[in-house]
Structures are given as C-alpha cells and as structure tokens.
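Figure 6 in text form: structure in, sequence out.
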C-alpha cells in the first residue's frame, strides 16, 4: 500500500490544521526509521510513504525544511501561486505571526509574507528534499460556479514552471473539492492528482485516478497514523472507494 500523508501548518493557532514543532520532529524521526519517503512517480518499495504539505506556508520553510534535511526525508509542497512573492526582507518572526484566518485576508500575504517565496521554493527544489505541486492559483473550491478551471489548473502549472524552471507533475485539489470537469482537466495536465480522503493507495494510479491522502495534522502522538486501528480504517476506506468506483 502507498500511504500519502497530508499536513498543513506547524505551530499555528489553527489546531486542526497544525502540529507543534516538537510533535512534527518526533513524527518525522519515526518515519525516517520505518519508511522510505518518495516523490510522485518513484518506484514503490514496500515501506514507501509520500509526505505532502499544503499551501506553502512560511512555517514549512522555517520548521519542516530543516527537519527534512536532518532526517533525510522527501516531501511534496503544494503551492497556490497567487500568494507567492518573489522574495522578501520581512523578518521570520513577523512572517510567522499571523493567525491562520488572517493569512488570506486582504494584502496580508504581501505585508507579512506568510507564504514561502519563489526564492525559497527554488532553494528547496535545488536541495533535492522537496518537489513542488500546483495547488491552483487562488486556492478556491474548484467545484464552485464561475471558476476559470483552465486558468486555475493549467495557468498555475505554467506560472510555476516558468518561475521555478522545472516540470510540475502534481496537482493538489484545494479543499479536496472538485467536479467532473475539474478532475478531467487536472488529469489531462498532471500525471498525479491528489485529494483528501483518509484512504491508502495501491500505487501512483491512486483510486479511480485520484491519489488519496490521510490527515497528518493535529497528531496526538508521533505514531498515531501507523497504529493498527488507523491502518485498518484507512484500508477499509480504500475498499469502499474501490467498490464505489466499480459500478
Ligand atoms: Zn490548501
């Protein structure tokens, strides 16, 4: 099975979408001892796991990137391009100071730089520990009426490829929400399309062409996701998804 884990923040006030720095370090240390982290498309050994972080908050660069280097782990970072600045001189403490709900308000993404910058994304990409996914341009629900799907899905890919000088092969559906048009467009332009769903995958094909992710935010213990009960629940969900898609 291929577990793909979804995380968001570190040390945020938004507790359901965050882990503490100490919890994340213990969790990543455990993963480094038991698993081999892979990027989308990599050959899957039996102990493969794919780690994904959504939204490219600056706390990823500040807290997680150093841990990836320390424990020799790989992670996929999903970037909503509208919020990404080229570079910033704003100090780290200010960039980490916003409450979660303030991050997307007005011009805060410019005045506080709470997201990674393109310079930081390039540095992480170059390190070999991080690959970048598109997470749309505006981080909106793609199933809403009136959304310019081609712009959000293909436009974001073109922006990232131009800015970062690499191929962008993964798309992470914002909020895990989509309709048939959004899904087929994402599958047309990206080999790997990710959503939420608390199910395990068998391989990079995912379940019905979408790669499911299990929730790694708000961990109660470093090994919570790997316990027997959780693993059974994730496998059961996979089975339900497969049965649902055969009809
Ligand atoms: Zn997101």
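Output sequence:
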């Amino acid at each position: 099975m291929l577990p793909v884990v979804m995380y968001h923040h570190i040390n945020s006030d938004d507790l359901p979408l965050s882990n503490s720095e100490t919890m994340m370090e213990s969790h990543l240390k455990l993963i480094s001892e038991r698993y081999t982290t892979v990027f989308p498309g990599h050959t899957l050994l039996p102990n493969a796991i794919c780690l994904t972080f959504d939204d490219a908050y600056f706390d990823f660069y500040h807290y997680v990137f150093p841990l990836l280097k320390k424990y020799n782990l790989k992670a996929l970072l999903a970037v909503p391009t509208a919020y990404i600045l080229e570079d910033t001189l704003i100090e780290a403490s200010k960039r980490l100071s916003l409450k979660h709900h303030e991050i997307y308000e007005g011009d805060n993404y410019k005045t506080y730089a709470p997201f990674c910058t393109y310079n930081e994304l390039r540095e992480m990409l170059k390190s070999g520990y991080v690959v970048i996914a598109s997470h749309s341009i505006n981080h909106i629900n793609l199933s809403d009426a009136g959304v310019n799907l081609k712009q959000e899905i293909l436009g974001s890919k073109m922006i990232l490829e131009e800015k970062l000088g690499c191929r962008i092969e993964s798309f992470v559906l914002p909020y895990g929400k989509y309709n048939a048009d959004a899904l087929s467009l994402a599958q047309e332009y990206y080999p790997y399309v990710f959503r939420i769903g608390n199910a395990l995958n068998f391989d990079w094909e995912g379940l019905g062409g979408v790669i499911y992710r299990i929730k790694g935010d708000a961990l109660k213990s470093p090994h919570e996701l790997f316990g027997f009960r959780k693993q059974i629940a994730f496998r059961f969900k996979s089975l339900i998804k497969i049965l649902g898609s055969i009809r």
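Caption detail: The domain at 4-245 is CATH 3.20.20.370 (TIM Barrel).
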